[in-house]
Amino acid sequence: MRSALRRCLVVPLLLTASCSSFELEDSFVITEEFGVDGPVSLEVACDVGSIEVGEDPSLEGIEVRGTVRLTERDEERALARFDQLGASIQRQPGGFTVAPTFEGGRRQSERISLKVTVPDLGSVQLKTSNGALTATGASGGVAAESSNGSIRLVDCRGDARLSTDNGAISLEGGSGDALGATGNGSVKVAGFNGSLQLETVNGDLEVSLADEATGAVQLRSSNGSINLSVAHGWSGVIEASTSNGQVRFRDQDGMRQKGKASILAVGAGGPRSITRTGNGSIEVEVRAPGLMRGPRL
Which of 91, 208, 214, 239 would be 293's cystine partner, CB 3.0–4.6 Å? Predict the structure, then answer.
């Protein structure tokens, strides 16, 4: 097993206010080779900072790229402090745990964002108090939690459990069973194949299922519109209701108004789906196969 550290300098910024301070943005790369065959599990956590995980088959191990932002009184102190920051990589059965490190503890101005890449990405656990979370290509499910930041999944498979107090949630492709909630933010889904339970307190929901999707959905917003698009082959019963808005149904015959509440039988019927909002309109679309709808919000 071999570890290597490489520092990549970014031109620092000098900020002048009532008293001078030096803001440094710099980056580092840590690589570690390993002999694991098959998908690698990752657990990555930051107190303050964004996290991005993905896969690159050309790698022979794990690669961690860290972006550091900090403020000191002058350049000399900033560069000295940068040398005291980094990331830890701990081997676990079937994978790794990764976290930023701050010698002597994190200072208020310091932030480290991490990008972690492995040859074959399995299950993922991500957590940050303040920052965005992104996972691409995970095959073993994703658990992601942010107090203040967006969550984005791209072509991930397996169960997803997503939670943010303040930020958008996005699913692009992928499959499995997804459960997600945000306090303030939109929810967008495109090309997903599986069941969905998604909720936002303040925000719109835009969901377009994959052509081959068959799973039921539960979509809820306290304040926001809901747009649901399914392919012609999808079957189920959709209960749609709004306290302040209109329910609309669109198919090859055009658009039809359904009032404030409606039960819509699609295809041969089947599992029950729910779309519900307190303030906003609901539109359910049955589209021809191959006409995937992108987010319209």
Answer: 208
